[in-house]
């Protein structure tokens, strides 16, 4: 499944994956926002799912694309799996 067909659930894990992808590329989330004339708080609202309308969804897609969709998908998937495992262990 390509990252463009992958469903990302907005939230802290997705935000961290995107921010981490920018860092891995030698940049940063807020640096990208400044370079693209986007208020970091608006970009954060998109990554955390607080802006779920068409503009927020477009912003999220743009952020994922700029950060590197394959890397974001990899980190996001790993973090989701780790969280699920921690929940299983805590429930046992």
Keyword list:
single chain; 92 residues; mainly alpha
- How many domains in all? 1
Shape: globular
Strand content: under 5%
Order of helices and strands: HHHHH
Helix content: over 70%
Q: Which secondary-structure class do the elements indicate?
A: mainly alpha
Q: Which stretches are poorly predicted, pLDDT < 50 over at least 5 residues?
A: none
Number of strands: 0
How is the main sheet built?
none
Gyration radius, in Å? 14 Å
Counted by DSSP, the helix tally is 5
- Average pLDDT works out at 92
Note the gap between the termini.
Answer: 32 Å
Description:
With 92 residues, the chain is mainly α. The protein has one domain. It contains five helices and no strands. The longest helix is centred in the last third of the chain and has 23 residues. The chain is globular.
How would the blueprint of this fold be written?
Blueprint: H1 12-24, H2 29-35, H3 40-48, H4 54-67, H5 69-91
Helix pairs in contact: 1-4, 1-5, 3-4
In short:
With 92 residues, this protein is mainly α.
């Amino acid at each position: 499944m390509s990252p463009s067909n992958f469903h990302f659930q907005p939230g802290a894990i997705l935000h961290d994956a995107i921010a981490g992808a920018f860092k891995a590329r030698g940049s940063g989330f807020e640096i990208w926002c400044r370079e693209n004339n986007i208020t970091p708080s608006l970009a954060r609202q998109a990554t955390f799912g607080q802006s779920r309308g068409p503009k927020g969804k477009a912003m999220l897609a743009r952020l994922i694309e700029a950060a590197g969709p394959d890397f974001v998908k990899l980190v996001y998937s790993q973090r989701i799996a780790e969280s699920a495992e921690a929940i299983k262990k805590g429930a046992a």
